[in-house]
């Protein structure tokens, strides 16, 4: 039960992530989030939710001292950033961040036509980090060679950064979405600009 999925909304009530119950309740307990009732959008802090849980007879976690209802949706009460450490530094997430777009010529490509490029080449001490890895198409990659963007006069279209939020992919969403999440997960969500 602690591994059930909970939808996380940011302060603007936009769906930004999914966490397990343990993580979601921790955020609520720590005051970083409130539980949302999907029926009427009312919000509850930990104590309110615990109080309300007394009357619930199913879907609860029982601890030694009390029982608590499993939340399905929570809303963050703090500015973005709680999830910073949860974004996995992975090839897939770099593709998501750069939206399959070569960061030098700005054109969109198929995944297999793109490579990961070290902005500052490894031979010059460049490391594999969010700030130093970008997507590049093969022609740009070849043109750049073992040089910096300045050295190759190939400026980046934007400075690579660690994204603050990474939406889960469309596939996984359709697998895990719950009826109670539906109204929070709309088209607008997918157009949200990832800001740093
Ligand atoms: Zn390119």
Automatic annotation (TrEMBL):
<dbReference type="GO" id="GO:0003676">
    <property type="term" value="F:nucleic acid binding"/>
</dbReference>
<dbReference type="GO" id="GO:0008270">
    <property type="term" value="F:zinc ion binding"/>
</dbReference>
<dbReference type="GO" id="GO:0004519">
    <property type="term" value="F:endonuclease activity"/>
</dbReference>
<dbReference type="InterPro" id="IPR003615">
    <property type="entry name" value="HNH_nuc"/>
</dbReference>
<protein>
    <submittedName>
        <fullName>HNH endonuclease</fullName>
    </submittedName>
</protein>
<dbReference type="InterPro" id="IPR052892">
    <property type="entry name" value="NA-targeting_endonuclease"/>
</dbReference>
<dbReference type="InterPro" id="IPR002711">
    <property type="entry name" value="HNH"/>
</dbReference>
<feature type="domain" description="HNH nuclease">
    <location>
        <begin position="89"/>
        <end position="142"/>
    </location>
</feature>
<keyword id="KW-0378">Hydrolase</keyword>
<dbReference type="Pfam" id="PF01844">
    <property type="entry name" value="HNH"/>
</dbReference>
<keyword id="KW-0540">Nuclease</keyword>
<keyword id="KW-0255">Endonuclease</keyword>
């Amino acid at each position: 039960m602690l591994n059930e999925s909970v939808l996380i909304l940011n302060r603007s009530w936009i769906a930004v992530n999914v966490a397990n119950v343990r993580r979601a309740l921790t955020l609520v307990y720590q005051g970083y989030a409130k539980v949302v009732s999907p029926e009427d959008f009312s919000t509850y802090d930990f104590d309110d939710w615990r109080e309300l849980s007394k009357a619930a007879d199913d879907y609860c976690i029982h601890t030694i001292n009390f029982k608590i209802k499993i939340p399905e949706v929570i809303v963050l009460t703090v500015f973005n950033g709680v999830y910073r450490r949860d974004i996995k530094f992975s090839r897939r997430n770099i593709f998501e961040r750069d939206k399959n777009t070569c960061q030098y010529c700005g054109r969109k490509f198929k995944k297999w036509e793109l490579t990961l490029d070290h902005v500052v080449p490894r031979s010059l001490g460049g490391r594999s980090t969010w700030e130093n890895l970008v997507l590049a198409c093969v022609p740009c990659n070849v043109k750049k060679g073992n040089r910096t963007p300045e050295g190759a006069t190939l400026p980046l279209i934007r400075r690579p950064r660690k994204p603050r939020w990474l939406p889960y992919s469309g596939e996984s969403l359709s697998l895990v979405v719950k009826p109670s999440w539906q109204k929070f997960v709309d088209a607008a969500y997918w157009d949200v600009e990832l800001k740093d």
